């Protein structure tokens, strides 16, 4: 038995040594032993290469505005590990995490003695999440994000009321496959028999795979650009404005605060999902509640302003598609700024291609590393950059301080930090701490 939260957390993190083991056998065993808590929850299952977290955030805020109690399971975390399991956007408490870890631990020890072997970190946290929401704190809805892929992902033990595939791109190719069709087949693995599927996938090859799986499962498919259409879109002073036509309704002049054309698509997918649930009489939500929730939605680390002078934006773009969306958003909203980019990434990412794309709009590029087993060194990243105006430092604090001091009071300059969600979480906390210290100095 763990007596303290930190003991439980260290135990969970200690499972990282088991790596990634795709498959559902261990999940089936654990949840059977626990009495199948996952069967007690109305689930909306979300897969995709990018956009999962933002799409979940839009749905979360709309449902909360309608008075619903909404659980969410997302990854990775930005501030605290507990935020992966949240209710109405609030992470579960340390005490709750401790209690469910203690309940799951004996079953983990039991399965380790079988031929199935020890569960991974993700399998354990997924089991804890299903136990929490299915037995102790049942929500009206659970917004469930896949960890990796879909077909063999630990979350795919779920039996959802609706499935969503946001986008499909080249990521985790060593596990999911080398072609778009192979990756799409893995993501489409979340489609269940007669459970509707909604998607914003644009690639024709990927969409064809999803459609074939949906047909084989007798699942209704609603596709952005075919069944769901964005009729108008334009910049808005607070973000983006667009009009959406679903299979059932037309929503004129919707406003979102998260910036970027990709966020319009994420929001359109989320509204379409809620609209479907309304028409199926599973949700009651007024037009005002839908609009207010949509506009109020935000997602930590996605084109988030974390410092005002100089302006610093963090964005967790960690693959080609994410970088393309970031570049598009910067071009749309900051066309006249000198953009200075601080970049750090994991070794297993195609960081050379990401750096080349970022260099196309950057006035300067800066490279660093951070405390993570798979992080690339600052010099490795620096060496991959062809831009003349570039620097590197193995200390991200040192290089961040330099950028904050260099561009203070320079309104024409913008600092953008990107490359890894794990990395930007450090920058987010650092800027918040620095801003708080500056405010205290001003008060004194």
Write up what this structure looks like.
The protein has 444 residues and is an alpha/beta fold. It has two domains: 5-296, 3-Layer(aba) Sandwich (UDP-N-acetylmuramoyl-L-alanine:D-glutamate ligase), CATH 3.40.1190; 304-443, Protein-Tyrosine Phosphatase, Chain A (Alpha-Beta Complex). It is built from 15 helices and 17 strands. The strands form three sheets. The chain has an eight-stranded mixed β-sheet with strand order 4-3-2-5-1-6-7-8, sandwiched between helices. Helix 8 (204-216) links the parallel strand 7 and strand 8. The longest helix has 23 residues, at 421-443. It starts with a helix and ends with a helix. The mean pLDDT is 94.
Distance between the termini: 47 Å
Percent of sequence in beta strands: 15-25%
Structural class assignment? alpha/beta
Return the domain count. 2
Global morphology: globular
What is the residue-averaged pLDDT? 94
Please give the number of β-strands: 17
Sheet with the most strands? 8 strands, mixed
Task: Fill in the CATH topology of the largest domain.
Answer: UDP-N-acetylmuramoyl-L-alanine:D-glutamate ligase
- Order of strands in the sheet with most strands: 4-3-2-5-1-6-7-8
CATH architecture of the largest domain: 3-Layer(aba) Sandwich
Q: How is this fold's topology laid out?
A:
Blueprint: H1 5-14, H2 25-33, E1 43-47, H3 52-65, E2 70-73, E3 85-87, E4 90-91, H4 94-111, H5 121-136, E5 141-145, E6 162-165, H6 173-176, H7 180-187, E7 197-199, H8 204-216, E8 221-223, E9 229-236, E10 239-245, E11 250-256, H9 261-279, H10 287-296, E12 304-308, E13 311-315, H11 320-333, E14 338-343, H12 351-359, E15 364-367, H13 378-383, E16 390-392, H14 396-406, E17 413-418, H15 421-443
Parallel strand pairs: 1-5, 1-6, 2-5, 6-7, 7-8, 13-17, 14-15, 14-17, 15-16
Antiparallel strand pairs: 2-3, 3-4, 9-10, 10-11, 12-13
Helix pairs in contact: 1-4, 2-4, 2-5, 3-9, 3-10, 4-5, 7-8, 11-12
């Amino acid at each position: 038995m763990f007596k303290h939260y930190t003991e439980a957390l260290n135990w969970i993190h200690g499972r990282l040594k088991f790596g990634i083991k795709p498959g559902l056998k261990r999940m089936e065993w654990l949840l059977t032993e626990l009495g199948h808590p996952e069967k007690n929850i109305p689930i909306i299952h979300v897969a995709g290469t990018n956009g999962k977290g933002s799409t979940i955030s839009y749905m979360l805020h709309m449902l909360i505005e309608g008075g619903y109690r909404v659980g969410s399971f997302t990854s990775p975390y930005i501030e605290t590990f507990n935020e992966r399991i949240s209710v109405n956007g609030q992470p579960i408490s340390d005490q709750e995490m401790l209690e469910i870890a203690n309940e799951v631990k004996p079953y983990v020890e039991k399965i380790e003695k079988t031929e199935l072997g020890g569960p991974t970190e993700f399998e354990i946290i997924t089991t804890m999440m299903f136990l929490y929401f299915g037995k102790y704190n049942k929500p009206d809805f659970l917004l469930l994000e896949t960890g990796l892929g879909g077909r063999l992902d630990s979350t795919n033990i779920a039996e959802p009321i609706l499935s969503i595939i946001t986008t499909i791109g080249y990521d985790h190719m060593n596990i999911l496959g080398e072609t778009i069709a192979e990756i799409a087949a893995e993501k489409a693995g979340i489609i269940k028999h007669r459970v509707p599927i909604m998607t914003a996938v644009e690639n024709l090859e990927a969409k064809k795979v999803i459609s074939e799986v949906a047909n084989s499962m007798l699942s209704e498919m609603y596709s952005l650009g075919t069944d769901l259409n964005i009729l108008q879109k334009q910049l808005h002073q607070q973000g983006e404005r667009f009009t959406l036509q679903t299979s059932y309704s037309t929503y004129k002049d919707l406003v979102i605060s998260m910036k970027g054309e990709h966020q319009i698509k994420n929001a359109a997918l989320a509204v379409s999902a809620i609209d479907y649930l309304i028409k199926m009489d599973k949700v009651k939500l007024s037009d005002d509640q839908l609009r207010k929730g949509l506009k109020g939605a935000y997602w930590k680390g996605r084109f988030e302003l974390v410092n005002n002078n100089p302006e610093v934006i963090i964005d967790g773009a960690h693959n080609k598609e994410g970088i393309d969306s970031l570049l598009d958003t910067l071009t749309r909203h900051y066309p006249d700024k000198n953009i200075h980019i601080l970049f750090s990434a994991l070794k297993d990412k195609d960081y050379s291609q990401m750096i080349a794309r970022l260099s196309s709009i950057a006035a300067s590029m800066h490279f660093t590393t951070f405390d993570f087993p798979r992080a690339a060194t600052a010099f490795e990243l620096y060496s991959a950059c062809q831009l003349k105006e570039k620097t590197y430092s193995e200390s991200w604090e040192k290089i961040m301080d330099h950028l904050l001091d260099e561009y203070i009071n320079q309104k024409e300059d913008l600092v953008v930090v990107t490359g890894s969600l794990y990395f930007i979480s450090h920058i987010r906390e650092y800027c918040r701490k620095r801003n708080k210290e500056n405010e205290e100095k001003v008060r004194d």
